[in-house]
Design goal:
Order of helices and strands: HEEEHEHEEEEEEEEHEHEHEE
Radius of gyration: 24 Å
Distance between the termini: 92 Å
Shape: globular
CATH architecture of the largest domain: 4-Layer Sandwich
Oligomer: single chain
CATH superfamily of the largest domain: Ribonuclease Z/Hydroxyacylglutathione hydrolase-like
Number of domains: 2
Strand order of the largest sheet: 6-5-4-3-2-1-15-16
Number of strands: 16
Largest sheet: 8 strands, mixed
Number of helices: 6
Strand content: 25-35%
Length: about 280
């Protein structure tokens, strides 16, 4: 009887030791994995870059106070000019709005070399018919009407990256352009996967100093927006043009931090080594 009791005790001790070992191993793996996830290495040596970037907000729901001739519509389209290439990032909700504003802003849609569709929502892809998509390279996240679906980060020209899509939902890609001597300017559509996650994805390639586009924070609390701004500052972001679905709360906080690029439909932004990021009009 005593021997049987001792055996049972030994078995119980062994089982408890094994359970403890398994628990400690799982806990270590989870904590270690989370720690690795939180460590983001900011690249300081991208493979290439451009001399300057000019960007024009062709479609946005943020009205212009200085140009009443432009249409405002819920959506986003940004014309981007760099040496030897013209890019259209998203196309807004309709071809009519895109054509109308482009004409008044001096943007020749027939000269577009590349279109990037951030995600499948109609307010970002609805204007595609304004271009001859058969003769233009149209890159886009899965689900978009692109003729070149993006699944992984692509460098389409030295210093110009269409980033690996992240899931929001939906799948969403972003455009990163590295400016020699300045750093990266990141164009985002709606930031459904989270703007911090998108920037973390981008800084693996180049330091992101400027972000332009929708941040998807219109309904976010002040506390959440403050936390996001702090995280973006820690990642090296200095200026943000928060338009489309960003919301007034994040814009007000960015203004207090002297990080806001106060842009709207019709705004023209220049980014260069000499001048940094600044608004022309």
């Amino acid at each position: 009887m005593v021997n049987e009791t001792n055996v049972n005790l030994v078995i119980m001790v062994i089982v408890l030791v094994l359970i403890g070992f398994i628990f400690i191993s799982i806990s270590y793996f989870v904590l270690h994995h989370r720690f690795e996830q939180s460590q983001v290495t900011v690249s300081t040596s991208p493979r290439g870059g451009v001399g300057w970037v000019e960007a024009v907000v062709v479609v946005d729901n943020t009205p212009s106070l200085s140009n009443s001739n432009l249409l405002t519509a819920w959506g986003l389209s940004i014309y981007i000019r760099i040496p030897d290439m013209e890019i259209l990032f998203d196309t807004g909700p309709s071809p009519n709005v895109l054509r109308y504003n482009a004409e008044r802003l001096g943007v020749n849609l027939s000269r577009i070399d590349v279109v990037v569709l951030s995600h499948e929502h109609g307010d970002h892809v609805g204007g595609l018919q304004a271009l001859n998509a058969n003769s233009v390279a149209v890159y886009g996240a899965p689900g978009t009407p692109a003729n070149r679906v993006v699944n992984n980060t692509l460098e389409i020209s030295p210093g110009i990256y269409i980033l690996k899509p992240l899931y929001g939902p939906p799948w969403e890609t972003s455009l990163l352009i590295n400016v020699n001597g300045y750093g990266g300017i990141l164009f985002v559509g709606c930031s459904h996967p989270g703007i911090v996650n998108i920037v973390q994805n981008a800084v693996k390639i180049a330091r992101v100093k400027t972000v332009i586009g929708g941040l998807h924070l219109a309904g976010a609390s002040e506390e959440e927006c403050i936390s996001i701004v702090e995280k973006l500052k820690a990642l090296g972001v200095e200026k943000i043009g928060a338009i489309h679905c960003s919301g007034d709360t994040i814009r007000n906080i960015l203004a207090k931090e002297n990080m806001l690029l106060n842009i709207h439909v019709g705004s023209r932004i220049m980014v260069s080594k000499e001048g940094g990021a600044f608004i022309i009009n």
